[in-house]
Amino acid sequence: MAFESLSDRLNGVFKRLRGKGKLSEADIKAAMREVRMALLEADVNFKVAKDFCNQVSERAMGQEVMESLTPAQQVVKIVNEELTNLMGGQEAAHIHIKSKGPTVLMMCGLQGNGKTTHAAKLAKYFLKQGHRPLLVACDIYRPAAIDQLQVVGAQAGVPVFSLGTEKPEIIAKKAYAHAKDHGNDIVILDTAGRLHVDDALMEELARIREAVTVDEVLLVVDAMAGQDAVNVAKAFNEKVGVDGIVLTKTDGDTRGGAALSVLAVTGKPIKFQGTGEKLDDLEVFHPGRMAGRILGMGDVLTLIEKAQDAQDAKQAQETAKRMLENKFDMNDMLDQLNQMKKMGGAAAMLSMLPGAGSIDTSQIDEREFVHVEAIIQSMTKAEREKPSIINPKRKRRIAAGSGTSVEQVNKLLRQFEMMQKMMKQIKRNPKALGRRLGLPGLRR
Asked: Which of 72, 131, 169, 396 could form an S-S bond across to 207 if both were Cys, CB 3.0 to 4.6 Å?
């Protein structure tokens, strides 16, 4: 998970502060030294870490902390606000889509950072919002680059424009004309990359910008590259001009230095973050929400958005109705497992909950859910709809068919029975659901 090591270090610092009650200047200075070390270990730019700690120290030395009844909480509040400011403020940086004519987005970056995949992810993101994107293959050098874009474009359900090995600027110009003729309102140019920043790459990008009016240049950088990612962003911004950053592989980066440094060093905001390998694994970058994740406050808003994406309102209402009427069966349980997978799995969901910093998500074995899925899929239609008919003979057949043991089948059936008992209690007393969820005002 992104920022995992930084989050652990900062939460350790704040835990020690909470144990002190009143705070002295010496306490705050000692805490800020630890925070600075934590930031540097997370591969945050040295100047950025220094300026951040100075800003927090200056505010923490004021009356709002020193005279507060909860000084440690005030320090956490200040750190949260300054982290949010460091990454771009409360509001996410959005891409402006023109009302007339195609909006042209140019994806650029070094090879191996996921440019082509994230061009398709971005296209799918806009497609789900009701736009008609067009992917354009402007990388004529890398072997199979055009084929790769066509494959991921097909997976995303987005058309791909290509002219083989024609000059990239000509491809871009003809793609723009094609988009106007065919009603595509967003044109995403997948340009070539290099193993390092060089003049030939920059000149090619400049020629493309001369051939078509590029509305936004999006630089794709690898979060796991740390300070190298920031240096690449700085170089591209100076030579080409960048409007926003797409940060990839944030699911594999436990430090997070690139996300915390890139805006301060380049002045350009992170607009999107790649959170996995699937084409749906792309999120708008919200600085305030990310600051909350770092400080263990969770990210409930993103969790809700993921749930809404994974399950439409009608289906959710139907499931809730079946549960309250005690008609919830194994088919419904299988649906819920599939929804959870779409949201990134149990560990990803837990990481967004407040206080999740104290939960060791590495102990969650996602394979258990695979076993549950296999067991349910090995049941007959009648068994799924009425698990009570499953006798020892049926259990042995289900275990053999799912590659599990009879003990695992029994465990799942016990869990299902417990769910049914709970639903019966809630049906008799709906207020019980409110108490379980912390919603005492729930009524029939």
From this structure: 169
